Amino acid sequence: MNPHLEAKVLHTRRQFFGRSAMGLGTAALASLLGREGWAAAGATPGRPKFGGLPDLPHFAPKAKRVIYLFQNGAPSHVDLFDYKPKLREWHGRQIPDSLTGGKRFSTMTGDQVARPVLGEITKFAQHGKCGAWVSDFLPRTAEIVDDLCFVKSMYTEAVNHAPAITFFLTGAEIPGRPSLGSWLSYGLGSETEDLPAFVVMTSRDKEESCGQIFYDFYWGSGFLPTKYQGVSFRGKGDPVLYLSNPDGMSRSMRRGLLDDLAQLNEIKRQDFGDPEIATRIAQYEMAYRMQTSVPELTDFSKESPAVLEMYGPEVRRQGSYAYNCLMARRLAERGVRFIQVMHAGWDQHRNLNTQLKIQCEDTDAPSAALIRDLKQRGLLEDTLVIWGGEFGRTPFLQGKIEDTKQWGRDHHPYAFSLWMAGGGVKPGFSHGSSDEFGFNAVQDKVHVHDLQATILHQLGLDHERLTYKFQGRNFRLTDVHGHVVNEILA
Q1: Distance in angstroms (rounded) separating the CA atoms of residues 272 and 223
Q2: Is pLDDT at 32 greater than 50 in this prediction?
Q3: In angstroms, rounded to a whole number, what is the distance separating the alpha carbons of residues 261 and 26?
């Protein structure tokens, strides 16, 4: 018998409709679902919701999106935001053993016997109606303190960079858990189908003064389907590879190619039931739509000179922190759910006297400009912006007090500061405090899991109910910990 005819005879009606409807019609069906079927429960009034779980958010959100300005390497809280006159008073004297005894530090100061207190290397002043203390290294941030909510009692558990960053972004020190942006993409979906729900951009100090590495698991989806992982925009050339069609391929040809690929992938998905095949189909479609959306996104020609000047002279240099901050605003207004801007260079072990000021000059104006820009466009109210690193820096000196050219501070997980803005947090407010040396968080302490629970809460999510079953257990971002910090909520 002819094998082709035999296959037709054995092809059941169920198989025909299953493979035809889900195969030949994949692209059209995906488009219809995207525009109509997914714009369901939980959608923002006046704006559809693409993807996400149908019963989310759990309650009315204060924020629709998040911009996380993550400062890799850990800014020195006692030199920037947490003013401690005691440090100047004790400068050069051994820090009390009652503070350091039994504490864990990195290998760089773990065995250091002499731990002289290092007074702040900057000058502090109070600013705004709220009277917030800010270093003179951050003049633009000082101008917007009445829009900021400072948390000065953060503490964490890790003492080294990669585990500490992973803990902040995934809720665990060991890689393999979904990142915060992936949880939000999974639960809430996006407000646009032309750009990813979760976008990541990275930059580093021009001097390359520290060796911080941007690991992919900082924006990975862990055990969630990979369609929820962050899409990393490159700092040079096309933001995303392979968006441009090869020479000789028209957009209609590209469309036909993707339709054929969708058919083949859907056949395999029906045969094997692998959810990663569905991810592949979705990502091909996203890439096709991004061919149009990304060139418009990265075109700054319609930005006013005043806006560009506000972000600083580096704003036109692709891959710079200033460029990424302006991109973050443009992504936010186009419906991207989570924008993760990571900047490395804060790890000042031996160059605090020189590099801290340079790092502040690179990041101060763009960070403040982003807040101003969002506010004047009416976006700050429902955009939660977070600025901070993975831990703080030691109030005592790493190295010798007489070697002023190599002054530095080691990693410090026991107390540090960050700030938040918009998204329903109190403006012009400071929460919590550290002791008189800036060593331990002592009042209204905020753990990393507490911050994560609060972020989810502002987007209408109960951190105890947003879970995913994996290997027989229901996992969540905050593990089995965390509480919402209600005191900072407006």
Answers
A1: 19
A2: no
A3: 10
87 vs 420: CA distance, rounded Å: 26
Average pLDDT estimate for 282-306:
83
pTM of the model: 0.88
Q: 10-41: buried (b, 16+ CB within 10 Å) or exposed (e) per residue?
A: eeeeeeeeebeebbebbbebbeeebeeebbee
As separate numbers, helices (DSSP H) first and strands (DSSP E) second, the chain gives 15, 17
**Per-residue confidence band for 244, with pLDDT thresholds at 50, 70 and 90:** confident
Digit-coded pLDDT (tens) for 81-98: 999 999 999 999 999 999
CB 184 within 8 A of CB 337: yes
CA proximity to 387, closest of 75, 170, 88: 75
The neighbour count for residue 247, using CB atoms within 10 Å, is: 5
Taking the CA atoms of 129, 131, 132 and 133 in sequence, report the sign of the dihedral they define: positive
Amino acid sitting at position 420? M
Phi/psi-derived region of residue 176, left when phi > 0, alpha when psi is between -120 and 50, beta in every other case: left
Which tokens go with 421? 């803005």
Topology (CATH level 3) of domain 42-239+310-488 = Alkaline Phosphatase, subunit A (3.40.720)
Instruction: Quote the CA–CA distance of 354 and 333 in Å, as a whole number.
Output: 37
**Residue 408 corresponds to which tokens in the numbers above?**
């530095």
Model pLDDT, residue 289: 74
Domains of the chain by residue range: 42-239+310-488
Mean pLDDT of the chain: 88
DSSP E strands, 216-305: 231-233
Q: What is the mean pLDDT of residues 22-50?
A: 47
- 89-103, 270-284, 380-394, 460-474: least confident range: 270-284
What stretch of H or E contains 429?
strand 429-431
Please name which of 339, 328, 309, 340 lies closest in space to residue 371, comparing C-alpha atoms: 328
Q: Is the Cβ–Cβ distance between 183 and 57 less than 8 Å?
A: no
Position 210 pLDDT exceeds 50: yes
Helices (H), 24-114: 26-32, 77-80, 85-89, 97-100
Query: Among residues 227, 285, 271, which one has the least CA distance to residue 22?
Result: 271
